[in-house]
Amino acid sequence: MIEALLNFDFMRYSLASGLLIGLIAPLIGAFIVVRRLSLIADALSHVTLGGISFGMFIVTVMPTLAFINPMWFGILYAVIGALLIEKLRTSYSNYQEIAIPIIMSAGIALSAIFISLADGFNQEIVGLLFGSISAVTLSDLFTIIVIVIIVLVFILSFYKELFILSFDEVYSKVIGIPKWIQFIFIIIVAMVISASMRVVGILLVSALITLPVAISMRLTKGFKQLIILSVVIGEISVIGGLVLAFYMNISPGGVIVVFLVLILAITMMYQKFKTRTIKGDANDEN
């Protein structure tokens, strides 16, 4: 692994981007999970695939545009999808969750159409679906770095407002938190999903956003502790997943997610054992 990092650029790009994704995905996921919008990551990941497949179709039709990274089309589609979800949530105020399956369905439909028009599935599409160590280019890494900077600046600048929005959206309106913060946040979510797809894969990106938070919720009490532990777990899973994927020559996305599922299962078993031990000690005292 160390020799590969020294000799191959794509390995360095993958590790660097993986570490960055392991930071921002759980970070933004903490706010998403608390707001009970976990499925939004799934919806936007499918919209992102629609954008990327559209970019590939454009390149197929107009080879002169081959210099354009399809990832930018994915980001554009994800941002549009995020804004449409927010618009639909406003329109269906009593059934806000319906916005997510609507946009998810549209994303899947667009993906199917453009993948077919772009000569069907190929190795690049498969890599985007499930992640690929060799898929990350220098251009992708620069894009991810820019997105990481935007995410960190936004979170640090509006942490208090995002905290209130996450726990009580009605109260945030009462105290006058600007609505544009919510719109920028949803755009940020779309950008994080687009950035994560190269390493984790579009079909599995929501797991890296939500699973570290799900694990941390069982171990922490405060929101800041939740964020910190989620990021730590995210980084551990990404590093472990990339290393195992390299040696086993398989897609890293699945390995990373299985890594997280195992951590969650171990956490739940530990808590169950701990609860039984406490109850047993209490019964012995009685």
From TrEMBL:
Cite the Gene3D superfamilies for this sequence.
ABC transporter involved in vitamin B12 uptake, BtuC
Read off the SUPFAM superfamilies from this record.
ABC transporter involved in vitamin B12 uptake, BtuC
Q: Which residues cross the membrane?
A: 15-34, 43-61, 67-86, 98-118, 138-159, 171-193, 199-219, 226-247, 253-270
Q: Which Gene Ontology CC terms are recorded?
A: ATP-binding cassette (ABC) transporter complex
One Gene Ontology BP term is: response to zinc ion
Q: What is the topology of this protein in the membrane according to its UniProt annotation?
A: Multi-pass membrane protein
Query: Which PANTHER family does the entry mention?
Result: ABC-TRANSPORTER METAL-BINDING PROTEIN, METAL ABC TRANSPORTER PERMEASE
Q: What protein name is recorded for this chain?
A: Metal ABC transporter permease
